[in-house]
Amino acid sequence: MHNRGIRPIQPRRRRPNGARLTLACLAVALVTAGCDSGSDSGRVAKIGVVAPLDAGLVQFGRGIRNAVQLAVTESNKRKAVPGWKFEVEAADDSSNAATGEAAAQRLAADPAVIGVVGTYNSGVAAKVAPVLDAAGIVMISPGNTDPALTLGADLTQPVRPWANYFRMVAADNVQGPFLAKYAFDDARARRVAVVSETKPVSRGLADSFRTAYQARTGLVVFNQVVPDGTTDFAQLMRAIAPLRPDLVFFGGEYEVGAQFSKQAGEAGITVPIMGGDGLKDDAYIANAGPASDGDLASTVGAPLASLASAKPFADAYAKGGFAEPPSDFGVYAYDAANVIIAASAKLLEGAEEVTPQIRSQISVSVQATDMAGASGRLAFDRFGDTQTRVLTLYRVANGAWTPAHTETVPA
Q1: Are residues 69 and 135 in the same domain?
Q2: What is the DSSP letter of 380?
Q3: Domain holding 232: CATH number?
Q4: For the chain, which end, N or C, has fewer CB atoms within 10 Å of the first or last residue's CB respectively?
Q5: Distance CA 17, CA 106 (A)
Q6: Are the C-beta atoms of residues 119 and 51 closer than 8 Å to each other?
Q7: CB 290: neighbour CB atoms within 10 A?
Q8: 146 Cβ partners below 8 Å, 6+ apart?
Q9: How far apart are the C-alpha atoms of 326 and 109, rounded to whole Å?
Q10: pLDDT at 220
Q11: Residues 163, 168, 174, CA angle at the centre, nearest 5°?
């Protein structure tokens, strides 16, 4: 707010000097004090969100945006930084790298932006992170899983690409072995077919799974990469079916994955389709139909209902009137926003505006984070990766994702 149009009090008749002074002081007090939230001071700090909101994986993106809004609303209610109001500046990336880069440039140009929660898609993050890094703006992802975002292209000699970039969830170099372990030990799959889309995050997860699965003496009978967005898998299924795999691994997301599962069933391949966090959404089941029964997917964190620490978030989100569910990434977006708010609190207190120095110091403060969040302990290693690496394997049963196994992977 900007003083809500408060004007100096105009006396109707001449008053003694003391009375005029009292009225003048009252007017000044009203203008400078504003309402209790501190918003009338004009001091606003914005938390940006870059996520698929209009197109792409909107089921994930809108839950991320809503969760950040909840964190900001709560922070303003409790007056996290006296004299300051937090606002959300949400920008769509449509799961597209170029769209995300343009969104990041707009946020970077806004001097009130103190941090960004996003992106969901790792490919988008690769374009967004350098823009925000150049502007000194911290970026915390609730969903990116490409290891290269924190470790660089050569995982054997890790080098952190951007000091401003952090992630809340376990990366694919953790998720792939987790899936391979479940496939071999629990699903008892001894022969698998592996298919992935071309984009690095999908291919990277498939490669990580394949390497870990073969290390357990599992046999990969088929391995192929398909163009992103492929919708016709008929020829591929004809090649896989005679090989009689015990399981088919798909590296991709729910939009394409649903078609993959459906067409596998039509080709007579009745073994489970397995994938990563990109598959685990209700839209996968809705679009694949009965063919999805028995399919497997991992996702980040423990089931929300199993976490006592997440109950206040879940209850507040349910009461928030949001049109979309939070998805598995909402709680991490909520925690990411609260990390940014906590990191900015001492830096903003007493300041009149967001400065480049404050922006850069927020990244330093985020690096030192060690606090309790709705998802559990919030802390980062020297590369910006989470120190709390929890994954859950889900199975489709009776038209719903059902948790089958949760594991905390040592850092």
Answers
A1: yes
A2: B
A3: 3.40.50.2300
A4: C
A5: 51
A6: yes
A7: 10
A8: 122, 123, 125, 126, 171, 172, 200, 201, 204
A9: 29
A10: 98
A11: 100
State the residue for tokens 């054997």. Answer: 156
Neighbouring-strand partners of residue 197: 226
Please report which confidence band the pLDDT of residue 119 belongs to, taking 50, 70 and 90 as the band edges.
very high
Q: What is the pLDDT of residues 126-167, one digit of tens each?
A: 999 999 999 999 999 999 999 999 999 999 999 999 999 999
Q: Which residues, at least 6 apart from 1, have a Cβ–Cβ distance to it below 8 Å?
A: 34, 35, 39, 40, 42
Q: Residue 33 above 50 pLDDT?
A: no
Angle between helices 311-319 and 330-348 (to 10 degrees): 100
Helix (H, G, I), strand (E, B) or coil at 37: coil
State whether 367 and 265 are in the same domain: no
Residues 313 and 294 in one domain: no
Q: Looking at the domain assignment, is residue 20 inside a domain?
A: no
Domains in the chain, number = 2
Distance CA 290, CA 50 (A): 34
**Domain co-membership, 295 together with 321:** no
| pTM metric for this prediction | 0.87
Residues counted in the chain: 411
Token pair for residue 113?
Answer: 């932006």
As a whole number of angstroms, the distance between CA 70 and CA 47 comes to: 12
Query: 294 and 333: one domain?
Result: no
Residue at 97 is within a domain? yes
Type and span of the H or E element at 260: helix 254-266
- Residue type (1 letter), 25: C
Q: Has residue 18 been placed in a domain?
A: no
Rounded Cα distance between 99 and 103, Å, is 6
pLDDT of residue 41: 52
Mean pLDDT, to the nearest integer, of 374-387?
98
Please list, in sequence order, all residues whose beta carbon lies within 8 angstroms of the beta carbon of residue 267, skipping any fewer than 6 positions away: 234, 237, 238, 240, 241
> Quick one: 104 and 214 in the same domain?
no
Tens-digit pLDDT profile for residues 157-195:
999 999 999 999 999 999 999 999 999 999 999 999 999
Verify that 285 and 344 share a domain, yes or no.
no
Burial class (CB within 10 angstroms; exposed 0-12, middle 13-18, buried 19+) of 334: buried
Average pLDDT, integer, range 24-48:
52
The CA distance from 165 to 132, in Å, is: 9
As a whole number of angstroms, the distance between CA 231 and CA 379 comes to 40
Whether residue 163 lies inside any domain: the answer is: yes
Q: Assess whether 254 and 133 both reside in one domain.
A: no
- Average pLDDT of the residues in 373-390: 97
Strand 113-118 and strand 191-197: the pairing is unpaired
